[in-house]
Amino acid sequence: MSTTPAIGTVTVHFNNKPFQIEYFHRPGHKGEILFVHGLGGAKENYWEACKSPALKGYSLTAFDNPGTGNSTYYNDMPLQVDDLADITAQFIDAAGLQQFILTGTSMGGLTTLLYLRTPGLSRVKGYVNIEGNLLPEDCMFSSKVVQFPQAAFVDTVFPQTITEMKKRGNAGFHIIANNLELNTNSTAYYHYSFQTVQYSADGALLQQFLQLPVPRIFIYGSENHTLSYLPQLSAADMTVAEIPDSNHFVFYDNPVEMYRAIGAFADSLDA
């Protein structure tokens, strides 16, 4: 089986406008895994999944949110995270995904939790949260965005964010900074940040995650071992996996170990 996924597009309609959503897909026979990226990310965040021995045989899919990669974004129709949840649901329908493992990273954790508040929950056999938004402490980027008017953010703060990320020591920060610079619509980044902060403010996301009626795993980078809610997650009926030598962008800092954890979780669902 090839480790190289095929690139494709599907068209979804939202607010009477067509959105071309670009995705990759690597077919498999063991089950479906869908990856949903976070703020400033892209489908390529998960490219290494296709090379992982731990995920051999699984069907893998990831797509670009509007405003990143090659997916459509209309600057005159700003989207919020609620809209991303709707578009995600449409993409899942268009891709024909049934009984799949849903994976959300960072803001993608918020998007996927919103999706799981809908009848879409019935399709999900397992849920992987990779440092997804659960409490205000998870808004490490979006909380800075919302302090500024849009023009100041686009002209000054967004470039500064890229520069600061490139000074960080982890590979993940450098690669995401490049994606922001080359592959991200700053208007989209700005508008997605507001609901990310709002939804993370009151603890409802954490409670939803704790109470989900499907098998769950929470994955975090070892440098973020001080996240305040880790004891609650560890005490709950879920798997919690610390990935060594990594920070927030675990999928770049230590993809081998991250996908090993996801593979073990996926295998356990069929054990």
Kindly identify the CATH topology.
Answer: Rossmann fold
Number of domains: 1
- Helical fraction: 25-40%
**How would you sum up the global shape?**
globular
Beta-strand percent range: 15-25%
Structural class: alpha/beta
Radius of gyration: 17 Å
Number of strands: 8
Distance between the termini: 23 Å
Features:
alpha/beta, 20% strand, eight-stranded mixed sheet, 271 residues, Rossmann fold, 10 helices
Task: Describe the protein's topology.
Blueprint (H helix, E strand, L loop, with lengths): L5 E9 L2 E10 L5 E5 L22 E5 L17 H15 L4 E6 L1 H9 L8 E7 L11 H4 L4 H17 L4 H13 L2 H14 L4 H8 L4 E6 L8 H6 L3 E5 L6 H4 L1 H15 L2
In short:
The protein is an alpha/beta fold and 271 residues long.
